[in-house]
């Protein structure tokens, strides 16, 4: 599902964020990306959905060579993956329903199919009763649930999450993780960058630790391994 071969990333200011990464993440896996601040985790994640391009190396995501993808093809590529951000990135003037439906409307899906699928995913994340609410009428946890619903409405094979519980209280974070676990059990690959030591140590999944732009640890059922 995801494969990186000898990937390097150096920014224009000379900072080497990624320094020779090789990794494979298979379909249906759930993997955490952990490491200290400045280790390269965000760059690692951003290259997966082509927010950043590698300087050298190959990145294949869902059968697409992301490193060589033309900028004009990036929006089409992103339709087949789900991305969840720490700061939600919801459209403030659209309702919950409209935020989730937007991705399907962009590909001109039939209105009846849009309605059925949007209600299905909002039911999955427990927000079917909030379809007419605007983002600023929701709590942080509810906004993240909308973000997750939006990320899976196209039925992607892989969901990439960048610190999805970073702005949430502990109780809400566990609720969000329960949703991710349910999504993963449907066969969707989950790749999640996180600083949440307790979650990683409790919900044991594959742990890929990054330091100084390199993978220093890759364990099937690993622990966080850092002071949070």
TrEMBL record:
Bilayer topology term: Peripheral membrane protein
Transmembrane segments: none
Annotated ranges, domain ABC transporter: 2-228
Keywords of the record: ATP-binding, Cell cycle, Cell division, Cell membrane, Membrane, Nucleotide-binding, Transport
Main subcellular location of this protein, as a coarse class: membrane
SUPFAM superfamilies, A to Z: P-loop containing nucleoside triphosphate hydrolases
Localization (cell): Cell membrane
One Pfam family hit: ABC_tran
Protein name (database record): Cell division ATP-binding protein FtsE
Source organism of the structure: Priestia koreensis
Organism lineage string: Bacteria, Bacillati, Bacillota, Bacilli, Bacillales
Gene transcribed to yield this protein: ftsE
């Amino acid at each position: 599902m995801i494969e990186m071969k000898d990937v390097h990333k150096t920014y224009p200011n000379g900072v080497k964020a990624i320094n020779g990464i090789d990794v494979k993440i298979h379909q249906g896996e759930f993997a955490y990306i952990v490491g200290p601040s400045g280790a390269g985790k965000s760059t690692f994640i951003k290259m997966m959905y082509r927010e950043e391009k590698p300087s050298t190396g190959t990145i294949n995501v869902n059968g697409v060579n992301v490193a060589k993808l033309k900028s004009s093809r990036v929006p089409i590529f992103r339709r087949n993956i789900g991305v969840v951000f720490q700061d939600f990135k919801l459209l403030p003037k659209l309702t919950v329903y409209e935020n989730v439906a937007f991705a399907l409307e962009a590909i001109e899906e039939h209105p009846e199919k849009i309605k059925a699928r949007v209600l299905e995913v909002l039911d999955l994340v427990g927000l079917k009763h909030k379809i007419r609410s605007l983002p600023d009428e929701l709590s942080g946890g509810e906004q993240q649930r909308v973000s997750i619903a939006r990320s899976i409405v196209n039925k992607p094979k892989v969901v990439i999450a960048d610190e999805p519980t970073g702005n949430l209280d502990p109780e809400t974070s566990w609720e969000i993780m329960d949703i991710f676990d349910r999504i993963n059990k449907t066969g969707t690959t989950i790749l999640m960058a996180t600083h949440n030591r307790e979650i990683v140590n409790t919900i044991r999944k594959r742990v890929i630790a990054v330091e100084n732009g390199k993978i220093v640890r890759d364990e099937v059922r690993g622990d966080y391994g850092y002071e949070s």
